[in-house]
Amino acid sequence: MIPWFKFPALPFGLHGFGLLLTLSVIVNHLVLVRRARALELGSKGAIEALAIGTVAAAIGGAYGVGKLVGGGGTLSSAGGCLGAIVGLVGLARALRMPVLAAADAATYAFPFGWIFARAACAFAHDHPGRLSSSWLAVQYPGGARFDLGLLEWMATPLLVVLVVLASRRASRPGVVTGVLAVAYGALRLGLDFLRAEDGRFSDPRWHGLTAAQWVCLGVMIPVGIVLLLLKATPSPPAALAQAASSPRSPRSPTRTPSAP
């Protein structure tokens, strides 16, 4: 089993949880900006506005949904995802950016920052799971149980590898977003079945599922599947070039009538 661990003491009154969350925001912003520039989504100012606005919308969604749902904490990662989606779509349209390409940039950046966010959860032990004797269980006070923040933190590097590979092989916008939406949705859906159900550790459930699981089933996974099934639509110049190069059916030559 994994022993109980805490974030080491920091000088100047710094708090480990807040430091890791701050690093998460900074890393997410930097990677999003770099990726958006690589995709040539817009001017430097427009890309900065997209990055700042999307992260701010994610934080607002996490805090708002966390307060609304209640449970073990005041922040909701599912709410953060919803906030990021709404903010991204609105900002991309306002800034006249292609929405799917902008979504790919934000999706690409997400797991890089998420490593630090979930590390904060792991050190805070604020996502307790069910009591267990598994070697992956953490020695919580009162009994060993799964730590869902720790388990998700351990899986996040795989999401980083996934978005990097998907970005290299994607043939059209939306693929990276679709891949991560399905992968992270399935990961979170499965992990929440290990969430604690005893006493003060229990989160609210609706028909046996947590709020995050309903978001995964109703939004994240279906949207990801739709994005993966979409077909690329060629731009007008590409469509004209394709039409010009396609073989045409033979026609009989046109003859001009001879004069009588």
Automatic annotation (TrEMBL):
UniProt KW keywords: Cell membrane, Glycosyltransferase, Membrane, Transferase, Transmembrane, Transmembrane helix
Classification via InterPro entries: Lgt
Enzyme class: transferase
Pfam families: LGT (PF01790)
Start and end residues of each stretch annotated as Disordered: 239-260
UniProt record, GO biological process: lipoprotein biosynthetic process
A Gene Ontology term for the protein's cellular component: plasma membrane
Keyword Ribosomal protein: no
Keyword Magnesium: no
GO molecular-function term, one example from the UniProt record: phosphatidylglycerol-prolipoprotein diacylglyceryl transferase activity
Domain of life, per lineage: Bacteria
Family classification: Belongs to the Lgt family.
Entry protein name: Prolipoprotein diacylglyceryl transferase
